């Protein structure tokens, strides 16, 4: 019985037109003059091998810095930056310009003249403990950034009315005044919160804004707040009802504030 012929597999045929795309490895040669020759290979758009030869000279630059600065650069990062690489991160660090200070030759003379000037020393003593104070609400911010500069500063027939509550002088605070239609109060607890004031005064009408001044360091209320109403009649009603109201072991005294000067 004849043996059947083996079926031919077209995959066994050699592709004579196939072009090898394997690239030789990169070569680095050190020259006698201290330079290095780097030979690389790549494929261009026509799928042809391209050989690139570059000669590089390495220069070592030595910089003398303060030993403390060099020590700090070796510290390991921590916190959210523990996995960041060495050096400043651009998303968290801003590198400033290195400014070189060159004192003048007669700086000692200028320092002596400044020390003898009584006006300069008086100005230093005057500004030493000076703090920013708003002219409208007496808060620790600039007058231009006061949240009540639109309702308290101008004098007009605006329907908005504000209520100011503050502690009297004998309990450690002072209330702030404002324009027409603004109320002033006394004996407000330092533990008061804006939402509590909003809940109390919203019973008399729609409240558009509540501002409670707080100390920046302690976070405690400074003893006065401002509540803005949409209708002036609601503000008058709130003034009549809330004057003498007990709030956090203190008795409120609510009244219309005076115009800011």
Automatic annotation (TrEMBL):
Membrane-traversing stretches: none
InterPro entries attached to this UniProt entry: eIF3_g (IPR017334), eIF3g_N (IPR024675), eIF3G_RRM (IPR034240), RRM_dom (IPR000504)
SMART domains listed in its UniProt record: RRM
Record's subcellular location: Cytoplasm
Subunit structure: Component of the eukaryotic translation initiation factor 3 (eIF-3) complex.
Entry-linked PANTHER family: EUKARYOTIC TRANSLATION INITIATION FACTOR 3 SUBUNIT G (PTHR10352)
Stated role: RNA-binding component of the eukaryotic translation initiation factor 3 (eIF-3) complex, which is involved in protein synthesis of a specialized repertoire of mRNAs and, together with other initiation factors, stimulates binding of mRNA and methionyl-tRNAi to the 40S ribosome. The eIF-3 complex specifically targets and initiates translation of a subset of mRNAs involved in cell proliferation. This subunit can bind 18S rRNA.
Protein name per Swiss-Prot or TrEMBL: Eukaryotic translation initiation factor 3 subunit G
Organism: Verticillium longisporum (Verticillium dahliae var. longisporum)
């Amino acid at each position: 019985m004849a043996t059947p012929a083996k079926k031919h597999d077209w995959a066994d045929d050699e592709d004579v037109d196939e072009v090898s795309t394997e690239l030789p490895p990169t070569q680095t040669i050190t020259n006698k003059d201290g330079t290095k020759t780097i030979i690389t290979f790549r494929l261009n758009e026509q799928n042809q091998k391209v050989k690139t030869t570059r000669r590089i000279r390495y220069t070592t630059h030595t910089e003398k810095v303060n030993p403390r600065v060099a020590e700090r650069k070796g510290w390991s990062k921590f916190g959210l930056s523990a996995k960041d690489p060495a050096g400043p991160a651009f998303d968290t660090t801003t590198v400033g310009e290195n400014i070189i200070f060159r004192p003048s030759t007669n700086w000692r003379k200028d320092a002596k003249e400044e020390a003898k000037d009584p006006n300069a020393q008086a100005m230093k003593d005057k500004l030493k403990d000076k703090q920013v104070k708003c002219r409208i609400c007496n808060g620790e911010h600039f007058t231009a950034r006061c949240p009540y500069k639109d309702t308290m500063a101008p004098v007009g027939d605006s329907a908005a009315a504000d209520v100011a509550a503050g502690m009297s002088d004998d309990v450690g605070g002072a209330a702030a005044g404002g324009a027409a239609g603004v109320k002033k109060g006394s004996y407000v607890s330092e533990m008061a919160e804006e939402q509590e004031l909003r809940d109390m005064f919203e019973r008399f009408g729609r409240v558009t804004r509540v501002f409670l001044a707080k100390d920046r360091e302690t976070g405690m209320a400074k003893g006065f707040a401002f509540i803005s109403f949409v209708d002036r009649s609601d503000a008058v009603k709130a003034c009549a009802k809330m004057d003498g109201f007990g709030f956090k072991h203190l008795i409120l005294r609510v009244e219309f504030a005076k115009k800011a000067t």
